[in-house]
Each structure stands twice: as C-alpha cells, then as structure tokens.
Amino acid sequence: MSQRTETGERTVVAKRVDSGTADTAEITELARAAGYRVVDTATQTRTEDPAYHFGEGKVEELAVQIASADASVLIVDNELGPYQTFNIGNKLPEDVRVIDRFRLILEIFGQRARTRKAQLQVELAELRYELPRAEAKASLAKREERPGFMGLGEYDESRERDIKARISRLRDELAQIEQTDQHRREQRRESGFSLVALAGYTNAGKSTLLRRLAVDLDVDENQDIHPDLEPTAESEDRLFTTLGTTTRKAEVNRRDVLVTDTVGFISDLPHWLVESFKSTLDSVYQADLVLLVVDVSEPLDEIHEKLVTCHDTLYERNRAPIVTVLNKADKVESEEVAEKKQALSSLAPEPVVISAKTGENLDTLRERIDTELPPLTEERLVLPMTDDTMSVVSWIHDNAYVNNVEYGDQVLIEFEARKPIVEQSRSKATALVDRQASPS
C-alpha cells in the first residue's frame, strides 16, 4: 500500500454534470476506499469546458476551497483529458495533485491486487489509461517542435511504442493464464461440479453471500497459494474488497456446486477498463448459472440503472441463465420489497429475495439454483461383485446423488449426476466387468 494511502491525505472531491444535480456520494466512497480523507465536496451543473472541464471560474473557486481545507488532493468524478488535468493543476495551490475518477479506480485496484492475474490486469488498465495521454503529449510536442509537454518531461514516439509493446506482452500473458483457468474449469465440470458465478455491483453483498453458501475449503483460481489456505472473500462495508476471484464449494440439494465471487461492477466504467479485466469476467461468462446480486435497500432508480448496466455487460457474452438476487432484505420493509419487485419485473423476473447477513431465504435460493442449473442425468448400473466393486460404489456416492443401492450376487446402483460423472461411472463399471472376465 502506498504511503499516501496510509497517511489519509486530506481531499476535496468535485463533480460536474451537464444537467440536473450532481451526486458525490459514490465518488466520496471510492475516495475513502482508496484511503483518502474527504474533507469537502464541490459540484457544478454546466456543459464541459474543453480547457478546464469545469468552468474556469469554478476551478478558481476550487483553489480557494482546497486552500481553506488544507487539502493536498483534488479528486474529480469525471474523466479528465491530459490538457484539462494540466490546466486545473495550474490553478490550484502548489503540489496539489489532480486525480480523475478512473485514475482513482486504478489506485484502488492496484491496492487490492493480490494474485498475479489481478496485478497484470491492473497494469494493463493503467497502460490503456496512459496511452491516449502519452499520444496527446507526443502529438503536441511534435507540433511545437519541442520534446517536452508543458514542462512535464520527455514524451515522444518511443514512449508510445513502449506502452503499446507492454500492452501486447500483458495481453499474451493474460491469455496464457486464461487458458489455464479454462482448463481448470473444464476439469471441475468433468469432476461433476456445476459452476455458479456471483455478479453485481460493489457492496451488493456478494462476498457475504459466498460465505453463506460455502461449506468447504477454498478452490481458488490462484494457484500460487494452496487452495486450502486461501481465505474466503472478505465481507466488509467498503468497495472493492474482492478484486480477483474466490471460488468455494457449496452443497445445493443433490449437487456439488462451485460458487465464484468476482470483482464488482461500478457505474460509468469505460470500455477499456472493463476490457482490461476480461479474464476475470470470464469466470462469469463461462459459468453454468449467474446470480446477479442487487442491494434491494437502494433507491429504485439506482437499482434499475445498475440492472440495465449489468445486463448490458453480461448479455454481451454470457450464455448461462441469470437469476436476480435481491439482497439486504433485512434493511427494507416487506411492503417496499414487494413494490420494488413489481417495478423491476421486466428486468428481474422472479427474483429471489434474501438477506445474506441474516441467512433469510437462503434455502429458497438453493432450491432456485438447483432448478436453474442443467438437469442431472439418471443412470442405472449393474456391477459385478469383485474386490474392487465397493470402491466404485463409494466413488459414485462421493460424486453423484444415489437414489438406490441393492446388494446380492451383483450390485445394482441407481443415481443422478452430471453427464461427465455418468460417463466416468460407466467406464469404471466396464473396467470391473473386463477385469472379472480376464483370466487370473
């Protein structure tokens, strides 16, 4: 963690909107999640100024506000171009840093990245953020036939080439990691596991829900740490406690299920930032079922907007069924929940209302998961009674839902399982017959 995060720098947050009233609640929470101490806020409603983003007069007001608050950082809840960042900084007291929304998000991601994959994705996002700025600086320097950009240092074509080359290398390394992850997902399916992914916005309660559903030790995507030692995703009232993926085993009626908690969505993310975390989102896209977790205690219009954004992201590549989970029901009266369910019915048909905190309606959710997952295959095997038969019967018990077993000269076993387990059971039965038929 950086020194500035530990010291909790005094910070002013500001936001501009084209129309309406600017809301600084989310950017304030993001700033606090990054370790900043928010001491004041400022808003403006007007069209964007190409030179200062805010109006020039507003920037001068911000300078006074920052000086009065003895702040060292200005966080702007918008995306700033390199020229705008420079111009705003020139108006502020000396040594005050200017950070826009996406630089702040990248700071948070950098602090939370623990696995190699997460660290690579953060670096990729940072470089994709920096590339257009390096291009702008190089372009201006070239036009003015001088190497510097407004006194900020050397930015030329070599800087652009370095960034592009590093982006290419990062993509290649992440592609290799994703191949390994994909192989691991297939192995899990072949072992009889159904894959369920938790999706949704930060602070919707995904990590708390994972802890409720989990019944076994971690089976984490990160293989640098032994799976049995990897801690479950934290359950804290702050943003981005989960950046990578955490996968745990859950028992859902007759099934063995692996549930994966992933990085939370956040509003107004640009395409380049979402794309940088593509390999993490593949855990969602390639699941058998997606649980879209929503904080039902939030205002209806916010829930609606977040559901639309989630659907836009998920439906682009996701093929699995999506079940909306209205979480934090313990914070809302039942009448309000019913009204919100009705209002959201077009976006979230037949949602499951739960409280991951109290455990309310978790059994209903498990039933729904069982219903939505691909159906199990019924199988009936007759096994010869040999020295190895009981080990096969035990394996079927461990990997399938056994309905009936009858013992005699032969063993009749009836069970339900995912297709890969059924196929493995048939193979094991055939091997028993072949060994019995072969001469001693």
Describe the structure in your own words.
With 440 residues, the chain is of the alpha/beta class. It folds into 4 domains: 3-109, Rossmann fold (3-Layer(aba) Sandwich), CATH 3.40.50.11060; 113-177; 193-372, 3-Layer(aba) Sandwich (Rossmann fold); 377-437. 46% of the residues lie in helices and 20% in strands. The chain is built from 15 helices and 14 strands. The protein has helices spanning 3-7, 25-33, 56-69, 82-91, 101-112, 116-143, 157-190, 206-213, 271-276, 278-285, 300-317, 334-343, 362-372, 389-399, 419-437, and strands spanning 10-17, 37-45, 73-76, 97-100, 193-200, 214-218, 246-252, 255-261, 289-295, 322-327, 352-353, 377-384, 401-407, 410-417. Strands 6-7-8-5-9-10-11 form a 7-stranded mixed β-sheet, with helices on both faces. A hairpin with a 2-residue loop joins strand 13 (401-407) and strand 14. Helix 5 runs antiparallel to helix 6 (116-143) and helix 6 packs antiparallel against helix 7 (157-190). It is elongated and about 90 Å long. The N and C termini lie far apart (66 Å).
